[in-house]
Amino acid sequence: MTAAVFFGCTFIAFGPAIALFLFTIARDPLRVIFLIAGAFFWLVSLLLSSLVWFISVQISNKESAAQQKGLLIFGVVLSVLLQETFRFGYYKLLKKANEGLLALSQEETMPISIRQLAYVSGLGFGFMSGAFSVVNILADSVGPGTIGIHGDSQHYFLSSAFMTLAIILLHMFWGVVFFDACEKQRWWAVAAVVISHLIVSCLTFQNPQYVTSLVPTYVILFLMGIWAFYSAGGSLRNLKLCLTCKDKDFLLANHRPR
């Protein structure tokens, strides 16, 4: 039973992201490099926020439950702000890198479009975020022990897997919307990405009331998915052509930089 829980939750959390990687990124070495770089940027942001939180805990009153809870909330907010700051820094770095690749390339167009960079970097952020969110939980799911034996929720592993899936996809959508907003200098859209990220992160404080955290998170995921779709140049017409397999260029894997 523990093996079934482990593999089931792993495939729920990472299955869609791995499929996206295999079908749209793995065949292009340049995209793989940018994805790994995006994951590294997220990792650095986590390192900095963890360092600040660790120092704050050490100098605080560890016997005060209210103070420790406040520090936890502070750590979450700081982590989100640092992640979005590093996303902006990565956007600036990618713009410079793309200009350099264009100068070295013999073609007149950029080797990879800004929309592809947004998608790839967002998925890199999501992969690393998901890994750190659920890897310890998956390790515990192997056993020994039985979840919920002392009256706790038996849906802990399953809920964690679905939350991780949402976070990974949200990072991908946030990346697309964020980069498009920076390109068009729509700073209100950048603020919307940061605020939605803060909301989703703070919703996890509702656990173990999983319904109150998962349902709003998936509502935000659905809305951000629609926003990212239109930010990437999508429309109802080309969506219909894609679903009926009449528009091969609509797929990101075949998208040509313009």
Shape estimate: globular
Distance between the termini: 51 Å
Main β-sheet, in a few words?
A: none
What's the order of the H and E elements? HHHHHHHH
Residue-averaged pLDDT: 84
Would you count the extended β strands for me? 0
Proportion of residues in extended strands: under 5%
Radius of gyration, CA atoms, in whole angstroms: 20 Å
Quick structural summary:
The protein is 77% helix and 0% strand. The protein has 258 residues and is an all-alpha fold.
What does this molecule look like?
By secondary structure, the protein is mainly alpha-helical. The chain is 77% helix and 0% strand. It has helices at 2-24, 29-59, 65-104, 114-141, 156-184, 187-203, 210-231, 236-243. It is globular and about 60 Å long. 28% of the residues are buried. Residues 250-258 have low confidence and may be disordered.
List descriptors:
8 helices, mainly alpha, single chain
Please give the structural blueprint.
Blueprint: H1 2-24, H2 29-59, H3 65-104, H4 114-141, H5 156-184, H6 187-203, H7 210-231, H8 236-243
